[in-house]
Amino acid sequence: MIAGNKSSYNFGKKGQTRLKKAVIREVKRGSLAQKVGLKKGDEILEINGRNIKDIIDYKFLITDEILNIRVKTKEGQERVLTVEKDFDEDLGVEFENPLIDGIMRCKNKCIFCFVDQMPKGLRPSLYIKDDDYRLSILEGTFITLTNLNDEDLDRIVSMRLSPLYISVHATDGNVRKAMLRNKAAEKIMDRLKFLKENGIFFHTQIVLCPDVNDKEVLEKTLQDLFTLYPSVQSIAVVPVGITRYREGLYPLRRFTQKEAETITERIEELQLENLKRFGTRLVFAADEFYEIAKKEFPPSQAYEDFPQWENGVGMVSLLRDQLTELMNAVPLSLPEKRRVKIATGVSAFRFLEKVLSPLKNVKNLEFEICPIKNDFFGESVTVAGLVTGGDLVNQLKKKLVDEKHQCHVLVPEVMLKDGEVFLDGLSVQDVEQSLHAKVAVVKIDGKDFLEKILGTDLGVRL
């Protein structure tokens, strides 16, 4: 039920294209680009007499309402096209290298880095360690600020690149330096204060590691971040993810139930204080902390406008409230027999069992919630977003072998990249063929979830 912070950009086999060229990969049908004759393979050289350094420059330059675009065709001919457009109207092109410039790599060696805990043989893009402020602006990926020079910071300020998404982890310089294993990490508060003084807003996250940056260190980090309001827009506290591939890495462990209880209770206390002080809760515990603590999830209103939904903060509460609201629209009976297997991570099983229990009364509906144990990364990994296609197939095969009638298998979209491929490279079609069952991808949305279970349109809107 928890999604990590994902980028939709594809950087190819090696994760990076170093050619700094704005070569068009695709022209969208019906777009301005198509109307003025831009084609696949064309290279945009200049816009209104200015070179394009990267995708940020491109997006900035195309805000003008009259564009003179100097283009080199794939045949090598140069021409100038004039485009008249609205301020916020896009040209409708995608580039071979989505950033145009090369991706900014991470210079840290974090003790909790998830990439270091992955086995070989997965999709190449999963091994990319980016720390790129441009992706932070465009995609909401988290950055540490450790690889920015003065020119980068000046550019962020001058172009008003806001909000950023920043991994803080600790405001104690020594603790943060030890966690990121980078001397540049210790001046985090200086960097954040600089951003605040220059009008840049940011969302922050704290990856919490037991006995490293919790307890007193966490308290100091939160209090320091509170002083930066309103520049700091939100703070997410998420538990460290640990796989079975940690040989030779820093010794980390999972939080205990008691520790998770203490953390969620303290965050809820601070939320009440912040509501009185700022008018916002400002800090939020990740859904996984509530699952570890075996506590009821807060109401969805407690997450305000869900500033870190994609970071696994408030997903469960929103889905629960949507499902509860829609239960009155569920039919008493289906016209024909329907069998459904709902695949999820182990951590979501308790929640789904409870919230979907009213469906047991629907005539002709048989459904089973199937928590997929993570054999690939290890049993300590319990979130749906890290379930592989191989584990899904191996465990559901045992359940489907005795099925005499057609069965529908539902998988949450957080298990997949672009709705098609699992972490281990298996596609939805691969899983369908292996299970001899129809697989449907479900959005983290109550209406879509119920309709996929029932196989019918509920005829209502949330």
What keyword list fits this structure?
alpha/beta; globular; 462 residues
How many H/I helical runs?
Answer: 14
End-to-end Cα distance, whole Å, is 20 Å
Question: What's the alpha carbon Rg, rounded to whole Å?
Answer: 24 Å
Task: State the helicity in percent bands.
Answer: 25-40%
Task: Describe the protein's architecture and organization.
The chain has helices at 32-36, 55-61, 133-139, 150-158, 173-180, 188-197, 215-226, 257-278, 287-293, 315-326, 349-355, 389-400, 428-435, 446-454; strands at residues 22-27, 43-47, 50-51, 66-72, 78-84, 93-95, 164-167, 202-208, 232-239, 283-285, 333-345, 363-372, 408-412, 438-442. It has 14 helices and 14 strands. It is globular and about 65 Å long. The strands form three sheets. Strands 1, 2, 3, 4, 5 and 6 form a six-stranded antiparallel sheet that branches. The chain has a four-stranded parallel sheet with strand order 7-8-9-10. Helices cover 29% and strands 18% of the residues. Helix 12 runs parallel beside helix 13 (428-435).
